[in-house]
Amino acid sequence: MGVMVRRATEGDRADIVRLMDEAFRQDPVSSWVFPDEDRRRRRHGALMSAFLDLAFAEGYVDIAEDGSAVALWWSVPAGAGHEDAGSAADGPAQLREAVDPGNERVEVIGQLTSGIHPTDRPHQYLHMIAVRPERQGQGIGTALITSVLDRCDREGLHAYLEASSPRSRELYLRLGFADLGQALDLPDGPTMWPMWREPQRS
């Protein structure tokens, strides 16, 4: 499907945070980070806002022109740790302090994903992609990701992400990603799949 994609700006902030909050509030990983539904309703948006701040500061944000989907990316150099890639800027502990000081899982998720993030090769890191709930399943997310993956293929760039659900993992497999190492089982929680994509030639 034809989806117009543009680079997001600070002027899109409120709409993007609202979109990410709606899209991820019932996600398995978000539900693990905030197991109490009332707390999730109150604090989840703050976590999404913090991730967006990091993307604007250290990466780039692509948005569908109609505001139905958004993707947060980083260009990660070889030798960069996960924190350098922007998942927690000053570290998981600082992210926890800023978002929900009483919730240790905000810090734990950053520590665990840091441990599985590859550092040996430069890559484009898809930190998050959110599609408005009522628009999911229409190919919008695929179109948004493909706009970057096409550039990866042209320029010989690798890509990396962590799939947070079996459904998203299946999508990424179709887009040329492959499982990288062992899956990450969150303590008493869901599984995340680190995935790597080699540049592909047509």
Sheet/helix structural class? alpha+beta
Distance from first to last alpha carbon: 20 Å
For the CA atoms, what is the radius of gyration?
Answer: 16 Å
Determine the mean pLDDT: 90
Number of helices: 7
Main beta-sheet annotation: 8 strands, mixed
* Strand and helix order: EHHHEEHHEHEHEEE
Q: Report the strand count.
A: 8
- What proportion of the residues is helical, as a percent range? 40-55%
> Stretches where pLDDT falls below 50 for ≥5 residues?
82-89
The percentage of residues in β strands lies in: 15-25%
Shape: globular
Characterise the protein shown here.
- There is one protein chain.
- The chain has 202 residues and is an alpha+beta fold.
- The chain contains seven helices and eight strands.
- Helices cover 43% and strands 21% of the residues.
- Strands 1, 2, 3, 4, 5, 6, 7 and 8 form an eight-stranded mixed beta sheet that branches.
- Helix 1 crosses helix 3 (37-58) and helix 4 (92-99) packs antiparallel against helix 5 (104-116).
- It is globular and about 50 Å long.
- The protein starts with a strand and ends in a 5-residue tail after the last strand.
- Residues 82-89 have low confidence and may be disordered.
